[in-house]
């Protein structure tokens, strides 16, 4: 069944009108060569070749930033499948959906030269038609990310009578942060997304913010929903002395031992694909509650810590 993706078309949607008229979506990332025949079956293979190329073009760019960029380039060019749905901001406060109808092609010298043919939906959607969490996901930093958790909402908006029951997962674009929520519970997802956005917005005031910064490239933050070949890391951070990388995983309620395996997977990616030789990789699980199974698992996973969040709700008489 089809997948659902956010695809931003330039900063602030500056290329949306051109993409709408030309029937395509695309990316750039300063790679000025045709990728036909070089879009390998996995994102990791692609990154191994093109991350050094992009770092060579931008000597000041960190490895993590280059991995993030090349993962998004691969996702739009290869990972998104024919038949998938993409949602893009139109640059004027609205949103437009399109179905991907073609494979990768290259337009040298064009804006967003790495392209996919699409069939645009006949109408735009106003901001108020989308849920707050869907809008936040579309407008969050990064060119592309998975919107599979919003499949039901998007199908209702588009007037589809058939809701997806499964997904063909595409490495580097799917959000494995919700792999324990296979029913795609929209209320559960909304709460986790609110927690994630709140934590990112208030990072400096948290306990973690005293020691770590969310990954940034210049003025742009890209540590939220950082793409990996087994899903997206909720938050990727780096210690202020640059010696430690931190994988942060959020759960809305009670976390169980499955999340330990998930965090270890992400830590393995960071260790093998991002970390410099002298950098340590650690993990953090944030949830409302833990259980005995989680505590047993963490007892033999010293590189992972557990933090419990608290929600305070007060009413004040006007």
Low-confidence stretches: 161-171, 173-187
Strand content: 15-25%
Which percent range fits the helix content? Answer: 25-40%
Mean pLDDT: 84
Termini separation comes to 50 Å
Q: What is the top-level CATH class of the largest domain?
A: Alpha Beta
Return the string of H and E elements: EHEHHEEEEHEHHEEEEEEHEHE
State the shape. globular
Q: Could you say how many structural domains there are in total? A: 2
Number of contiguous helices: 8
User: How would a textbook summarize the main sheet?
Assistant: 7 strands, mixed
| Broad structural category | alpha+beta
Please name the CATH topology of the largest domain: ph1033 like fold
Indicate the radius of gyration in whole angstroms: 20 Å
Oligomer: single chain
Number of strands: 15
In CATH terms, what is the architecture of the largest domain?
Answer: Roll
Task: Write a short abstract of this structure.
The protein is an alpha+beta fold and 318 residues long. It is built from 8 helices and 15 strands.
Give a description of the structure:
- There is one protein chain.
- By secondary structure, this protein is of the alpha+beta class.
- The chain is 30% helix and 25% strand.
- The strands form three sheets. Strands 1, 2, 3, 4, 5, 6 and 7 form a seven-stranded mixed beta sheet that branches.
- Strand 12 and strand 13 (244-250) form a beta hairpin.
- 39% of the residues are buried.
- Mean pLDDT is 84; it is low at 161-171 and 173-187.
């Amino acid at each position: 069944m089809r997948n659902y993706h956010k695809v931003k078309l330039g900063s602030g949607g500056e290329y949306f009108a051109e993409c709408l008229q030309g029937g395509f979506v695309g990316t750039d990332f300063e790679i000025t060569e045709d990728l036909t025949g070089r879009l390998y079956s996995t994102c990791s293979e692609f990154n191994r070749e093109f991350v050094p190329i992009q770092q060579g073009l931008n000597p000041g760019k960190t490895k993590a930033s280059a991995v993030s960029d090349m993962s998004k380039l691969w996702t739009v060019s290869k990972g998104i499948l024919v038949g998938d749905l993409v949602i893009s901001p139109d640059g004027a406060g609205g949103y437009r959906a399109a179905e991907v109808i073609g494979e990768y092609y290259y337009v040298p010298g064009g804006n967003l030269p790495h392209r996919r043919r699409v069939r645009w939906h006949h109408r735009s959607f106003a901001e108020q038609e989308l849920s707050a969490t869907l809008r936040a996901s579309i407008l969050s930093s990064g060119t592309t990310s998975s919107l599979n958790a919003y499949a039901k909402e998007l199908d209702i908006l588009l007037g589809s009578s058939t809701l997806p029951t499964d997904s063909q997962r595409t490495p580097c674009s799917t959000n494995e942060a919700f792999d324990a929520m296979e029913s795609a519970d929209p209320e559960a997802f909304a709460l986790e997304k609110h927690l994630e956005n709140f934590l990112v917005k208030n990072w400096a005031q948290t306990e973690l913010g005293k020691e770590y910064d969310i990954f940034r490239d210049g003025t742009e933050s890209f540590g939220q929903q950082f793409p990996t070949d087994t899903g997206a890391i909720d938050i990727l951070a780096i210690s202020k002395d640059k010696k430690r990388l931190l994988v942060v995983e959020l759960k809305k309620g009670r976390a169980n031992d499955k999340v330990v395996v998930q965090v270890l997977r992400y830590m393995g990616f960071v260790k093998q694909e991002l970390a410099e030789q002298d950098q340590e990789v650690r993990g953090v699980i944030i949830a409302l509650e833990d259980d005995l199974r989680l505590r047993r698992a963490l007892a033999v996973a010293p590189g992972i810590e557990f933090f419990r969040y608290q929600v305070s709700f007060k009413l004040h008489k006007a």
